[in-house]
Amino acid sequence: MNEIQQIMRDRYPGNTWADVARRDGPLPDVLARQANPEQDLRDISFARYTDQDFFDREMDRMWKRVWQFACREEYLAEVGDFFVYDIGRLSVLIVRSESGLKAYYNSCLHRGTKLKASGSCGWSAGITCPFHNWQWNLDGSLKAIPCDFEFPQLDRARAGLAEVQVASWNGMVFVNFDPEARPLLEYLEVLPEHFTNWDLTGWYVATHVRKHLPGNWKLSMEAFMEAYHTPYVHPEMTNVVGDHNMQHDIFSDHISRDLCAMASPSPTSERKMTEQELLDSMLVGDGAMVGERTKVPDGKTARWVMAEQLRAQMRDKHGLDYADHSVPEMIDSLKYHVFPNLLVYPAPGLCLVQQFRPDGHDRDRSTFDQYVLHPKPRDGNYEVAEVEVIGEDDTFASVESMDPFLASVLDQDTDIMRWQREGMYTSGKGTETLSIYQEARIRHLHDTLDKYLEVSK
Q1: Does 73 reside within a domain?
Q2: What is the mean pLDDT of the chain?
Q3: Does some domain include residue 58?
Q4: How much is the pTM?
Q5: Residue 199 and residue 159 share a domain
């Protein structure tokens, strides 16, 4: 335990996330680990959010070199299924071919026309340019050209679609524009080991909402990388959700996490609640997955009851065995950050994926994709959700498929973003000052970004 972690333990004696989590039994090794190395406590310049030159360097030096989440595998389940992933001005067409996943630059080799519309998905027997009808097979090889005698200079054997690296892990599809990039599993560093107990291949996208946001992609994502703001932006949560006593871990360049206890009050809460009150008020990502609340037996906690109830639901409805999973593995908000822009919550009680990207080529705007995952039913009868797109002035609460609690929290988080963006531009100071622990992962994000941009601090 380093000095920073000791400060947090001294500040919240007996009430850190690890303390709360151990009340119902020992922690698995991956959750017992703590890693929060000391950092340079410099301020972070607002130019990293607002400057066009900085944004352009990100697009050229970072986004073209990192593995980035594109979609869930459910969108590419059958041969011929396709999904278009866009980042800035770049666009990738991902398809399921006979030999597996393939990804191509979404651009015709004739005159550059996009082959499929941005953000689209569906099924196609092949790949056809909508402008002049040039055609390729799903494996990227050239199939046909109208008036092919007009192109004697074309080497048809080398006229296949330009490829982008593609790989999948845990039901998630990633792409990388760098042909020399190291394999995805190496890029993910400790993540595959940590997710040994969370197999998300048996889950599917039940809800997918994309919201346009009025802030730089980092600004938007960083709101979800700390809970320092919770008592002030989400005051209704403080009685039943830990926040300032969360655990923050930094494992490597690309992987960090925060661990937040459910059915455990914030250190800022002044209300004393019984275990039964905690259970009755407990917040989960999708309450429908848990069902009606029961009674807390003597000597047990609300957290234990919720975990037991969720295990029974998973077993009875979905045939999933979580008997060996600890209480926090079942119900807590365990949020892993994969650099640059992905947050994954693997616990069955809060199984979410969140993604943040530049909105087109606008440094001041971003898109936020919110996925809610559900277990695939035993009978195999399920429908993968289509993306529902909402604007800056629309609310998550207006989306019928969203859980009301989750929607209200997301609305509170995103409502503040325009204020922050405008404040960055009007700042007389020009920098942000981050806390040493609760906001350490934000500073780490910028440290890793610097390694890609090769800029001075």
Answers
A1: yes
A2: 94
A3: no
A4: 0.95
A5: no
